[in-house]
Amino acid sequence: MSQSSWQDRFGWFVLAFFLAVTPVVMIGTKGAWDGIKNRVEDWLPESFEETQRLMWFYERFGTDEMLMVSWKGCTLDDPRIAQYAQAIGANDGIDGEEDAWFGNVITGPDALKALTSEPLELPKSVAVDRLKHLLIGEQGDQTCVVAVVSPAGEANRAGAIEFALAAADQVDGLAREDLIIAGTTLDGVAIDEASKGSLAALNLGSFAVCILIMAVSFRSARATIIVFVLAIFCEQLSMAIMYFSGQQMDSVLTLASNLTYVLSISSGVHLMNYYRESLAERSVKESVGWALRSALIPCLLSAGTTAVGMLSLTVSQIRPVTNFGAYAAASILAAAVVLLVWVPAAMYKFPIDPETWHHKSKSASRLQPIWEMLSLNMNSAKWPIFACSLVAIFISILGVQKISTSAQLHDLFWDDAPILQDYDWLEENVGPLIPIEVVLKIDQPETIQTDERFRIIEHVQKSIQSVEGVSATMSAATFAPIIPPKDEEGFRAVIRRASIRKILEGRLSNYVEMNYLRIEDGDELWRISARVHAADRLNYGELMQCLRESVDQSLTEYPGVEPIYSGSVPLIFKAQSEMLSDLIKSFGLAFVMIAVIMMILLRNVVTGLFSMIPNVLPTLLAFGTMGYLGVQVEIGSLLTASAALGIAVDDSLHFISWFNKALRAGKSKTEATLLAYEHCGLAMIQTSLICSFGLLVFALSPFTPVSRFAWLMCGLLLTALLCDLLILPAILLCFTKKPKPTTEISEAGLGDVRAED
């Protein structure tokens, strides 16, 4: 029976099957693409205390979904403010029903009027001071419109943003281009636009880069087309797997399909090189079978170790990271099946037989002197190389210990992104936008006079305002009359306190409507909102610690008052803490699992352990350098550590496979090193260039996690290539024990390499 019998018998069936499932895959791809949606607040699981507190807060006081809208010249006496507020608060007939995109709409002039008119009648200067950095800028003139998003707006944030922009066109002298907008509602929409808007163009760029490298490497249009079709199909299959499994795609998950694309090309190049090597001795159809058998174990091991690296990310508590790890692993394993089934069938039914492939390629010939030099000198340099690699690992680990993480909005976009420019302008001219929520739970409020409860709120609010980094605070006390001191004596003071108490008691329902008060099981929940600047790069851990200490100190005389902390800042701090923990856990898990595979493959614990050095060193060097330079790790960087480790092992496995085959054929270690260089050195260079530069295109993405992922992966993979070419052979020479030579080598083994007599 022919070695290629299954391709001969079932080749057309295999090709027809994949052609038939392609429309289904395309449907899944379109569904996943259309469903891309991002919301940073949903990154942490509901089991976290910080997430539960935020949900608890939302249930009682509503979400922090809001837009702050302003424009140059939006001052307290600007008549366009009232017109715009009316337009943005209007019903729009969403989904055929009379509904509004926004609920409450608050403006600076309206809030100022409420404070200066009855029953509060505050002096204008006092009222302006209370609203500074909240609705009015530092100079007391620039103001804004704050619109709270309705449930309909939360369900379709892009529609709400478009409605807010279109509302400007209904105001005389105002256009959508004039608006400066920021807020949590805009964040997810901006991420969608930044990641999805450029993804199609970047994909085309990646396609072009990979095709160019393959065309130069193969010098065969048919080989290039087959590998490219493989990669495109696997990329689409990755997205289809997400869609049909019910997973909503986000901007981080798009990286899983991009990664599947370049890794599929990498595996296809290795298979093509095995086929090309066989053509020198075998017929075209026999070479298909020989290439498949030669590539089967290395490719399966490569897919397995890469999947292990990805699966290690599932230990993360951050949902996009967990999803990326799981779906990247599933996609890579599925791509391995497609590679080993579809590509041989395509190669058999559409033979690749360029004349140049029957001779040693010019590229291989040019590299031959380099391989000979490396293999001859490696034996004498093996121990210094090994020692230097250990020193590099030690120095890198010291740098890794200095790593800090960040999950702030400014880490998701380039500095010149429109959303960041709008945030910076609004925070500079109006006030900060990142919320910290402190809820004071007052037990048995009936035992404390109403004015005294407001003194407590005001006292705590001032203590929060005094914390470095907090730029503004707001509570029910902001919209209350001036509370006289409780130690003020005299008949007038008594009458004044009674009058203030009556006003406050009459306004309790107003504070409930304003979402500053909730009454629950006889207890009162009073909300104090603090704001910090998004651009200040604050250490949120230290900020929350200082805030807690300040609040606790202010409540020492009030044992019946319990503070509860919530808002975006505690959640972001938790995300940052988890990122560092996840980086360590996922990388450690990937290292252990892949090291076990290497020990089994090399049949030696010590050699297997040390063979991991060229695979872990690139990641340690990169993250150690980031630690020394103070570059913060964000979600895109987090993905690279375990992913790069899993991918870097691929070339190591191919090199080790040929090295072991040569030893079993009776070759010396030096000869085995040379043979491994000759058989897979060129393919290692080609695949590393394809993966590195195919991903590097995405460094142009305006979504920073994608861009950082691309930069780091490119650097990591190129460094891993150097480590595999220089450090791995040295380690194999140091620790590999030469096996007993076999008298015969499988035809799927070394080809023209035979045991020496």
TrEMBL record:
Record's keyword annotation contains Transmembrane helix: yes
Subcellular localization, as worded in the UniProt entry: Cell membrane
A Pfam family recorded for this sequence: MMPL
Identification of the protein by name: Membrane transport protein MMPL domain-containing protein
Organism: Blastopirellula marina
Assigned keywords, A-Z: Cell membrane, Membrane, Transmembrane, Transmembrane helix
Boundaries of every Membrane transport protein MMPL domain copy: 141-347, 581-738
Record's GO cellular component terms: plasma membrane
Membrane-crossing residue ranges in chain numbering: 12-29, 199-218, 224-245, 252-275, 295-315, 327-348, 383-400, 587-613, 680-703, 709-735
Topological type in the membrane: Multi-pass membrane protein
